[in-house]
Fold this protein.
Amino acid sequence: MLEIRNLVSGYGKLAIIQDVSFKVDAGDFVAIVGPNGSGKSTLVKSILGLTNIFEGTITFEGTNITSWKPEKIAKLKLGYVPQLGNVFPDLSVSENLELGGVTVRDEGQKRKMRELVVELFPILKSRSGQRAGLLSGGERQMLAVGRALAAEPKLLILDEPTAALAPIVAEQLFQRLVEIRQKLNVTIILVEQNARKALGLANRGLVLVQGKSAFEGTPDQISKDKDIIRLFLGELAI
Amino acid sequence: MLEWLPGSILLSLFQGSIYVVVSLGLTLTLAVVKLPNFAHAEFLTIGGYVGVVVSAVYPDNLLVIGAAAFLVCSAIGLAIHHIAFKPLMDRKVSIYILVLASFAVAQFIRYSVFSWASVVGLLSATQNIKVYSLVTLYNTELTNVYALAIVLAILMSVLLELFLKMTRMGKSMRAIASNFDLARVSGINVSRVVDVMWIIAAGLGGIGGMVFGIYTTVTPALGFSTLLDIFAVVIIAGLTSFTGTIIGGYIVGFSQTTVMEFLNYYFGVSLGYQPLLPFALIIVILLLKPTGLAPSSTGLSTIRKFARRNSSGPREGEPPKE
Amino acid sequence: MFFGLGGVVGATVAADLLPLFSGAAVGNICDISSRLSRESIALAYPAISVSVWVIALAFAMLAGGIMGLVASYPALRVKEEWFLSMILLVGGETFRIVVTNTPEIGCGFNGLDGITTPFYWLSNYLPSGPLQAEVPTGLYAAVIVLLAIGCFVFAQKICNSPYGRLLKSVRDDKVAAEALAKDVSRVRKQIMVIGSIMAGLAGALYVYYIGVATPEDYIPALTFGIWVMMILGGYANNRGLLLGAFVITMLDRGSLVSGIALESYFPTLNSNLIVYGRYMVEAVILLLLLVFRRKGLLPETRVKTKAYTLFDFGKKNAKPSSQPAEVPPKGDATTG
Ligand SMILES: Nc1ncnc2c1ncn2[C@@H]1O[C@H](COP(=O)(O)OP(=O)(O)OP(=O)(O)O)[C@@H](O)[C@H]1O
Ligand SMILES: [Mg+2]
């Protein structure tokens, strides 16, 4: 479904991602883990066209989308929850959801997606008139995920959606992700600090260190690789 | 002893209404593309001259003249965006460079108008629109121009509000203003929305200039002479608040007319110092309360305040220069 | 603003002191008669004429410096970069409006004229003819060139001194400079004062050259020309500024000359167009530069301090490590 080959990308003239390759198949749940500043966010931003790509190619469903504009990539049905600024703070909750679905042409389909979103996150319904900037942290993350879902995505990319959430709220959000994946059959890429949790949910994992792919494989393989654990994930992670 | 007061208040209302119409466009530019466009006041000049030219053919036909002013300025706004600002913004240059560029654009437009006006002999021109009194109250005539400006300010504010809140395009525009990158990855057609933004912003400047030009003599420096007043309005408004812009427009209108005449009447201050009051407002607000006087409806002010308290360093999320 | 202030102050001082020193009545300096008496005094007393000139320059520099200090308070306290341009624009316009509307300052709207060059008296000793007018002006122009060279050398010295390196670091990375315990706002204030002293000097020199000080001379289009000079040559670069000033002045003079030439061929041509055209060309040059060559024609060079020469000794191409301003703003360190 998504294939990244020998990607070198970054900001301005500065390369952050150094020669990373990986493949995501339809139905996968891929976890990307790694230390702070290792380039996880930069990697997923590259998929969405938010970085400068210096070398390599990105193909989505057979289309080469390398260096496309973000607004064009979005039309291919990719949903994205950024790490920072993941909602429109000055717009109301319902407007956020509406704009999440601008790429969906069919009105009926659009309504269906929104119903599904409020079914998953009932709190959004009671807050629908409120400005997103005034939501609590947890509510905002739910809105961010809901907004990305409103685009009816085939591939959902989430960048640390549970950062700064209480463990119990984070757990709920993870449960929703599992539900979403089953119900809608979307492919998911999840960037997560909590490596143990992420690898527990995923069926494939990628460990990113200093802009390079340090390890790629099934969660089991990663969990068993003593070097990776010791060097990059820390004893506590497993 | 207060004979001058009703007339002065009416004049303030008129002046303020013009400022509101023109400044709404600048506020839109600041909010959506984050550009302090120092060329914005030139739309006022162009609107005024379109009024002169079109009213020579269609005298007193306000609809045709107004539409022409709007359309011509929209076209010019689109042109300067695509020729000057867009190439720079695509390169992610700093705001300082954009400000310089907008000065260059302003100067180019201003002296193009000067050249044209000097060739056709219109360095100082009037529009062919009859001004007449509608009613007289307290010895003060409410003329059709005053009424037109005030109605226009209300109408434009309401239309803009409806557009931004009710239409898909308007919501997209607010989304871009609120979070540019997220708007792009959501699939909003940013360049089309920005084009529409320029059409509206420049058009508002033009239509404001056209109405102003009924009241006053149109010269190529008309826009430049109001540039700092318009910036005073948006600075009072905290740069991105539309309600603030409406309030700010009337504050500047009153400070220039009623307050100034008051100072002149009681303290003998020369009316030549008229522009200094808005200047003082600019300096004081920039220094003491850069978020403006109006209550911000965007919530941005709290974030900014917070950021300011925490650091004097570069703003977060700003792309590195060069 | 500082330029204009220097001009007005210089002219006022000159107008007040000339009669005072020569024992004539001071009277109203805005009168036509006072103008004539200024000219005759300048013609009759060489010593007074030159010393008044020097004093006028000194006052202009002082006024520029004080104004720079005053202006640096708001200018350094603004929160966003572009607010500074706003404040300077407001300052310039305030100056123009105050001078225009206050007859007590520089004779208001009409301006102050009859300010002859300090070498006007030379014409007494010259045979009548074109030379009589040209020699004093030419001599004065030569003095201006000398002073300009002086300022340039001074600016070069500053930029290549350790202080210049501090300036660059303050500009490029305020936080880092602050972290190194440098008083950023003091440095900025100092440099603003130095800059405005120079501008005041230039203003007074200019007034003495053209002979009048009127507020209408200080319209933003002129300031704009100076910006173009800076960006054209490469901003933050004294040598570049020279090149820029040269090109813009050529444009200025060129437009005058071509204007005269064009007028003689097409008598119907509107002479205003030449002036307007020049401003338009300047705007286009600036836009093109901003889009295509933001660093200017001559890019910024390294700070040449003693340390640099020491490090460079023996190995021409080695990068010295003691260049805070040369380290790329972000990156290398974090990715390495
Ligand atoms: N907009 C930007 N411009 C320049 N450099 C950036 C930008 N964003 C991130 N970087 C740099 O890129 C590197 C990788 O950042 P990135 O955000 O991808 O890390 P991350 O793995 O997502 O970290 P975290 O776990 O903290 O979110 C960092 O060194 C960072 O300083
Ligand atoms: Mg990240």
Chain C touches chain A at residues 330-331, 334-335 (CB under 8 Å). Residues 220-314 of chain C form one domain.
